[in-house]
Amino acid sequence: MMIARPVLSVLLLAPLAACGGSVVPRGSYAPPPAGPPASAFQKQGPLLGSDARRLTQLFGTPRLDIRETTVRKLQFANGRCVLDAYLYAPARGKEPVVTHVDARNPTGADVDPAACVSALQSK
Fold first, then answer.
1. Which residues are within 8 A (CB) of 38 and not within 5 positions of it... i.e. 6 or more apart?
2. In what order do the strands lie in the sheet with 97-104?
3. Where are the domains of the chain?
4. Out of 12, 78, 98, 106, which residue is the most buried by the measure of CB atoms under 10 Å away?
């Protein structure tokens, strides 16, 4: 059984047809407009910029004080609220300050950090 030459050519070239990509004409691409700086997405909130001394003045002795190479986590709780404050040094040799806080109720549901701060201060 012999396959005709035109049919054979089509069968051999068919897999190559899938390799062709579309060509984008010159000048049709415009980069997306510049968005806000990354700092615009940083959360603002209570305690940001505070050091460990300030936190202990506000809430007393932390329930947890975990120190790692680049971060320190202080946890404060009073039965109504659990607050985790993450402290990083802004530069080498500088005092670590709070850059992020998480707040939750004792069952683990997220709560507003500002409300948690108020609950911890009212003891």
1. none
2. 64-67, 72-77, 82-88, 97-104
3. 44-122
4. 98
